[in-house]
Design a protein that fits this description.
Layout lengths: L1 H19 L1 H26 L7 H21 L1 H8 L2 H6 L5 H29 L6 H26 L5 H18 L11 H8 L2 H15 L12 H28 L2
Helix pairs in contact: 1-6, 2-3, 2-6, 3-6, 3-7, 3-10, 6-7, 7-10, 7-11, 10-11
Length: 259
């Protein structure tokens, strides 16, 4: 129970920090809303409805998953902030498992990502994206899974980075290619072989496709894009999550010891 309370305390700390940081809330919500409101209709007017597919809805589902996943991953920069303030060393000398500390950070940043996702869903409803009550309920657990998955990826990337400035310089190079390799705005199931390989290696892809599995799978009869089966997406997410969190924790703890 002590480990559980430690995870909850660390997660609560990060969530409270978000509620006090209105600039972060606004900045994380503004960009995806611009993409949905402007890019979706622009693609729809330019390309029509290929195969009857509504491109505004297609972009909405991609941006929803991408935003939650990226928000949780970027949120792990708080680990670096804690390191610079020597807070991380203070909690690492506490009688709590290192995995509990990292789990608390990931869960906290996952909870931080969910309000942004909620804002995107509200805008989706306002612009006419077909979101039935069943779909809304089903999106809750898949969004939480996407957020936790993104947090584990962020841990792996940030484990050996020593400053927030370096992290902010590296993350665009890690994230931006995945926007296209993951199929946030574009289909990815008929790519040339080199791009198909890179797409298969993109962690964000499985978060986006799992969200589309749920969204389109619960609306039978509606035109749907080609997506990887749900069990494959969840299986890849689960396996890579375990790899990310195990390796990321080892690297982060080693970096702390070597300071």
């Amino acid at each position: 129970m002590g480990e559980v309370w430690a995870i909850a305390a660390i997660a609560h700390r990060d969530f409270v920090k978000l509620l006090r940081d209105r600039v972060r809330l606004f900045s994380e919500l503004a960009f995806p809303l611009i993409l949905i409101i402007l890019l979706g209709p622009a693609l729809q007017s330019g390309f029509g409805s290929p195969g009857g597919l509504d491109l505004t809805t297609f972009v909405f589902t991609g941006v929803l998953a991408q935003t939650i996943w990226q928000s949780a991953a970027l949120g792990l920069i708080s680990l670096i902030a804690d390191r610079e303030e020597d807070f991380s060393q203070e909690i690492f000398v506490s009688p709590v498992s290192r995995y509990s500390i990292v789990a608390g950070k990931i869960i906290g940043e996952s909870l931080v990502a969910l309000p942004t996702g909620l804002g995107i869903v509200v805008v989706g409803l306002l612009i006419g994206v077909p979101l039935s009550p069943v779909v809304l309920v089903a999106l809750i657990p898949v969004s939480l899974a996407v957020a936790v998955y993104g947090g584990a990826f962020g841990l792996l990337i940030l484990a050996n980075i020593s400053s927030q400035r370096t992290a902010n310089q590296i993350f665009p190079f890690v994230m931006l290619p995945q926007f296209f390799l993951a199929g946030v705005f574009n289909p990815i199931h008929d790519l040339p072989t080199p791009l198909a390989v890179l797409s298969a290696l993109s962690p964000m892809r499985y978060a986006v496709e799992a969200t589309r599995n749920v969204f389109y799978g619960l609306q039978p009869g509606a035109p749907a894009p080609e997506v990887t089966p749900f069990d494959v997406n969840i299986g890849v997410m689960a396996a890579s999550f375990l790899a990310f969190i195990a390796l990321g924790t080892v690297l982060f703890v080693r970096a702390e010891r070597n300071r």
